[in-house]
UniProtKB/TrEMBL annotation:
GTP binds at G11, A12, T13, G14, V15, G16, K17, T18, G52, N106, K107, K108, D109. InterPro entries: P-loop_NTPase, Small_GTPase_ARF/SAR. The keyword Nucleotide-binding applies. SMART domains: ARF (SM00177). Keywords: GTP-binding, Magnesium, Metal-binding, Nucleotide-binding. GO terms for molecular function: GTP binding; GTPase activity; metal ion binding. This is Uncharacterized protein. It holds the Pfam family Arf. PANTHER family: ADP-RIBOSYLATION FACTOR-LIKE PROTEIN 16 (PTHR46688).
Length: 166
């Protein structure tokens, strides 16, 4: 792995990708470059947020990618099926067959959100994890309140530490 790892941040429009980056930036007290995060062990991770369009994600985006964060809006049931299709497309991309994947179910603070059990069932998450070639982690998050942000940072730390020679 290079000294600066690339993490793709993907998901539909309005799931909270930009807010997640801003919250992580505040926790880490980094400068104004929203995409570069320096973790505890001085490992730099560049998080590339790809727009919210549910269109195709071109293979060139996957070059040099060492991890993927895929965000889902747990309060938007009408978006679940398209998010699931996009996730399956990402997981089946050849360049991503061995990268670590974090699936974030965001907006757990909303009163109308689905439970983690409900959304995992709709996604058939157990089947996805069982058939994927990548290590997959799932977490709940509220980018708005900050609940779960430390778990995201811990995941980023764990995958960069495991992939580095520190």
């Amino acid at each position: 792995m290079s000294s600066n790892e690339i993490c793709l941040l993907l998901g539909a429009t309005g799931v909270g990708k930009t807010l997640l980056l801003k919250r992580l930036q505040n926790i880490l007290s980094v400068g104004t470059n929203l995409t570069d995060l320096t973790l505890k062990r001085k490992k730099k991770v560049t998080v590339r947020e790809l727009g919210g369009c549910m269109g195709p994600i071109w293979p060139s985006y996957f070059e040099d990618c060492s991890s993927v964060i895929f965000m889902v809006d747990s309060a938007n049931i009408s978006q679940v099926s398209s998010s699931c299709i996009q996730l399956l497309t990402v997981l089946s991309a050849e360049p991503l067959h061995s990268v670590s994947v974090l699936i974030l179910f965001n907006k757990k603070d909303m009163p109308c959100t689905m439970t983690l059990t409900e959304i995992k069932s709709l996604f058939r998450m157990d089947d996805i994890i069982a058939s994927a070639t990548q290590p997959i982690t799932t977490l709940e998050l509220s980018a708005c309140t900050g609940q779960g942000l430390q778990d995201v940072l811990s995941w980023l730390e764990s995958i960069t530490v495991n992939d580095s020679s520190l």
